[in-house]
Amino acid sequence: HGLACATRLSRFRPEEAVEDATHYAKKAMNRGSWEEGRYDLIASPTVAADLIQQVGWVSSAFLVEAGLSFLTDKVGEMVSVEEFTLTDHGSIEGGLESRIFDDEGFPTSSTTIIEKGLLRGYLHNNTTAKKFGVKSTGNAGLIEPHPWNLVVDGGDLSLEEMIKTTRRGILVTNNWYTRFQNIRAGEFSTLPRDAAFLIDGGKIRYAVSGLRISDSLPRVLRSITGLSRDRRWVKWWEVEVPTLSPWILVKDVSFTKAVG
After folding, report:
1. Do residues 139 and 145 lie in contact, with contact meaning Cβ atoms separated by under 8 Å?
2. How far apart are CA 69 and CA 62, in angstroms?
3. Bridge partners of residue 179, in order along the sequence
4. Of 48, 111, 179, 252, whose CA is between 20 and 30 Å from 220?
């Protein structure tokens, strides 16, 4: 469902949702075993968008001030690889939460959160802006500032190239139940669902199941090794913030068993 939704919100043909689902369903018929450990993760736009929206949420100055953000006291520091840039847009083509004014009547704008790995700043309403000595970014919600539409800059790889360069990895097409064990440290877990595939020697070998990704977002952001040219808008009940995301390749992600 999430993958199909991501495709419908993109600029691609609507029938791509059916093509993707059919493609993964056929491949998922060949299943095999896997062991707990660290694998390179190839995250589809659906999965990547879920993780990226978490970064967007904790860039809220309200959560920073409340001590509920792993980005606290990181402005001006490198928080990801240089290839990663994340921007929040108050209004953008394809963004389902686009609006001219925020909930305080302040004009929305485009705010770069992370630029080439550097944390540029937080998302503000008038109250947090005064406390931090800056101007509102036009992100006021009913209670706290939050992102409107998140956009990750694309890279120069195709999905096929990502797979070929992966010696030992897992491709995850969908996920749900992303939860923080320690939000200040950014420690989280999420459950891959639908189709996931073991990659060995640059080739997809077979489908795997019963996985849990258990890692930390700060480490994930610093371990990105590839971004695709292809990007898709994603929004569904797991991804509340409309997010334009590429496929993302992350090195040495921790995979554990979802059940005992």
Report:
1. yes
2. 9
3. 189
4. 111
Neighbours of 66 (CB within 10 A): 13
Helix (H) or strand (E) holding 65: helix 61-65
Residue with the two structure tokens 């001219």:
100
CA dihedral 230, 51, 160, 5 (to 10 degrees): -60
Contact indicator for 246, 230 with CB cutoff of 8 Å: yes
Residue 48: alpha-carbon gap to chain centroid: 3
pTM of the model: 0.90
pLDDT tens per residue, the chain (260 residues)?
343 344 334 444 444 543 454 455 555 556 789 999 999 999 999 999 999 999 999 999 999 999 999 999 999 999 999 999 999 999 999 999 999 999 999 999 999 999 999 999 999 999 999 999 999 999 999 999 999 999 999 999 999 999 999 999 999 999 999 999 999 999 999 999 999 999 999 999 999 999 999 999 999 999 999 999 999 999 999 999 999 999 999 999 999 998 75
Buried b (16+ CB within 10 A) or exposed e, 223-233: bbbbbbebbbb
* Residues belonging to the chain: 260
d(CA 254, CA 219): 11
